[in-house]
Amino acid sequence: MIEDSAALTAVGLGKRYRRGWALRDCTFTLPVGRVSALIGPNGAGKSTLMALATGLVNATEGTVRVLGKPGFLSQGKPLYQSFTVEEMLHAGRALNPDWDDAYARRLVEEANVPFDAKIRTLSGGQRTRVALAVTLGRRPEVVLLDEPLADLDPLARQEVMQALLAEVAETGMTVLLSSHVIADLDGICDHLLLLVDGRVRLAGDVEDLLADHRLVIGPRSIDVPSHAVVERRDTGRQSTVLMRGPGDVPDAEAHEPSLEELALAYLRASRAAAEVAA
Amino acid sequence: MIWVAWRQQRAQILVSFAFVALIAALVVYLRIDSSSTTDEDVLSERYSGVLGYLAMFLLLVPVLLGMFAGAPVFAREIEQGTHVFGLTQSVSRTRWWATKLVVAGLPVTVAMTALGLVNAWALRPLNFIMSGRLRTPLFEGQGLVLGAYTAAAFAIGATAGLLVRNTLAAMAITLGGYTATLMVLSNAARSKYAAPLYTTEAPPPDAWRVGTGYLDAQGNPASFSPAACDQDSLRACMLEQGVAGQSTWYQPDERFWTFQAVEGGLFLLLAAVLIAVGAWAVRHRLH
Q1: For chain A, which end, N or C, has fewer CB atoms within 10 Å of the first or last residue's CB respectively?
Q2: What's chain A's average pLDDT?
């Protein structure tokens, strides 16, 4: 385990646009060679965080540093619509002296996308695969993918993720992948960064985080120490509590939460806290 | 980067070239067709219609190029998000911006400058029909200014696109900004590019009269009030008020190229300022 060398380090990172802070006081690291999930509701600051990390926008406060060559696929997977796939690869070659053309071509061939097809005629899945080939063609060491699965059908999502994971395994690159569909990331990501309202709400190794939490289900009378409660929902005669840390609750069933259960509980708790504050 | 910019803009560039070439062919045809006679009455009768349309049309060409070639250069990319692709590759953002600007803007500016020179030659025998080439709209349709107008209109469109991030809005700003600039310069500034000449006789026929006055019998400036005249002849009325002659301030036709250079320079200056604003915007405003 290489814990002391981070692929991406943010310290006190913040970005203010005219309408207010999009990101505030973010301090975290991403481990090298791992797939990290960036989870948060719409408007949480996921895209802003990625734009800051790639240098597309400048930070208002704090710093963010990427170790190694970055690669970025922005939301909507922008490609020149009137170009053919071949021309898109040509563009990648023209814009990057370190372009690995054979590698980019192989990625397109593996996706079974014809080279002479115009970008605008491609299906969502094909477009994503071409965009991925163009992003990976310059052999980045840290890849930031902003909602790459957003407009894909379930089968295409699976294919894209498989292709991506195969490249991660082969090249050992670090990936930060954002999504608001948490189910897509379960079983794929081994590191989690949960963003709510521009702040880091939860960060860490997925296995450690899951092991550190308990989902407790029992009668409404169950008594959970309040300092350990992340979120409590009372429905009818039953209570569901996500709690952090060890500890047994009498008369209740407890099990390790799934990534989705964990993330949703934190997101709901943040929203409830915001509503109380407002 | 040059290849990428060319591949992105080539449709607009080729259409613009075809458009300019078509106008040039028309104008050359006009010159050849009109060379059969030097009789001014015949020329005037035969060509005044087509010359009027042509001059009005030429007035529009630079702003059309600014709207359709300049405004989308950055605005369309920003709308489609592809500028993020360009800005996250190995080329610097300044180089990305400058290459796109030059590849899209230089060819149309050069083509329009060439068209201006062709027009200056081709319209030579016909300028008299619309009281000389120093006056609107013939001044705007030939010589050095066509290229400078195009550069300015293109720069307005490109920089507006960077700032407002919307093609349609950038096109509207190009239309409004360019038209306002041209109107202000042609109405308020152009006649002052050089001190006008003064004469108490009739000025040359192709001169641009920029001011007139009345003289008394001693040759001093006199005032004349047409409102005080009765129904009798104007001439008698002038004499009655002590007006014996007229004076004229005018710009002679020989100053055409000087005026072209001054106005072209002013528009190039405008283009340079807008390009500087664009250089700032691409570094500090674009994301």
Answers
A1: C
A2: 88
Mean pLDDT of A242-248: 81
- Taking the C-alpha atoms of residue A152 and residue A170, their distance in angstroms, rounded to an integer, is 24
pLDDT of A155 strictly over 60: yes
Q: Using CA atoms in the order B128, B134, B135, B141, what is the torsion angle rounded to 10 degrees?
A: 90
Say whether the peptide bond before residue B137 is cis (omega within 30 degrees of 0).
yes
pLDDT at A3 (0 to 100): 46
* Cβ neighbours of A54 in B, within 8 Å: 88
Q: Which helix (H) or strand (E) segment is B180 a member of?
A: helix B167-184
Which positions ≥6 away from B286 have C-beta within 8 Å?
B78, B83, B87, B93, B162
Q: Which residues pair with B211 in a beta bridge?
A: B249
Instruction: Give the pLDDT confidence of B208-217 residue by residue, as tens digits.
Output: 999 888 888 8
**Which distant-in-sequence residues (6+ apart) come within 8 Å of B254 by Cβ?**
none
Given the cut 0.85, state whether the ipTM is greater than it: no
Q: How many CB atoms lie within 10 A of CB A257?
A: 20
Q: Which chain B residues are within 8 Å of A57, Cβ to Cβ?
A: 287
| Closest CA of chain A from B121, distance in Å | 40
Rounded Cα–Cα distance for residues A257 and B14 (Å): 61
DSSP, residue by residue, B94-149: HHHHHHHHHHHHHHHHHHHHHHHHHHHHHTTTTGGGGT-TTSTTTGGGSTTHHHHH
The encoded tokens of residue B182 equal: 């041209």
- Mutate which of B77, B84, B100 to disrupt the A interface (most A C-beta within 10 Å)? B84
- Segment B157-204, tens digit of pLDDT: 999 999 999 999 999 999 999 999 999 999 999 999 999 999 988 888
Taking the C-alpha atoms of residue B235 and residue B244, their distance in angstroms, rounded to an integer, is 9
Contact B87 A92 (CB under 8 A): no
Question: Do residues B215 and B221 make contact, with C-beta atoms less than 8 angstroms apart?
Answer: yes
Q: Is the dihedral of CA A153, A154, A159, A165 positive or negative?
A: positive
DSSP helix/strand/coil, A17: strand
- CB-CB under 8 Å, B84 with A74: yes
Using CB atoms within 10 Å of the CB of residue A248, give its burial: 0 to 12 exposed, 13 to 18 middle, 19+ buried. Answer: exposed
Q: Which residues pair with A21 in a beta bridge?
A: A16
Structure tokens of B162?
A: 């960077």
Sheet of strand A6-17, all strands in order from the earlier edge strand to the far edge: A20-31, A6-17, A61-66
Closest residue by Cα to residue A10 from A163, A193, A264: A193
- DSSP structure string for A39-105: E--TTSSHHHHHHHHTTSS--SEEEEEESS-EEEE-TT----TTSBHHHHHHHHHHH-TT--HHHHH
Cβ distance A148 to A73 under 8 Å? yes
| Nearest CA among A99, A96, A123 for reference residue A111 | A123
* SS3 state of residue A272: helix
DSSP 8-state code for residue B70: I
